[in-house]
Amino acid sequence: MKRTKIHKLEEKGHSPFILIGISYSDSIHKLAWALNSKSNMGLSQADSIQQVKEDSTTLHFPAMNNDTESSELMLALIKCKHEGFALLKSHPNIDYVIQIAGTYSDTIIAAMRRELKTIPGVMATFVISPKEAKLKEPLSPI
Known about the structure:
Elements: E1 17-24, H1 28-39, E2 44-45, E3 49-52, E4 58-61, E5 63-65, E6 73-79, E7 81-82, E8 85-86, E9 96-102, H2 106-117, E10 122-128
Antiparallel strand pairs: 1-9, 1-10, 2-5, 3-4, 5-6, 6-9, 7-8
């Protein structure tokens, strides 16, 4: 019997990423300003994250990114609620997420959470894994 060689195709994936959920009642602009002031993240306006509902209407969730050309750490601040809809179905009560990709560690994530907790109005932060959020790819393009 002749053996056939099986070739497995591997898809070039995205960088590993993780999310930090944030409970914060003010606007995305105030949160981005506070983060830029306290930790020099360099967040600026980016294209919104689009999600299509069952009735084919498109929802736009505001987002801000850091300058990825000058940083090994890619950050995106994303508003998770829009017109009564949640971006992450697994976490409908969170207000914002920071998506972290690139070269990051548990130390960087812990430091970022500590920094977030010093911002007036931030009530809670927590780490959300892509698996927990049921995400196969990042919310914001990396």
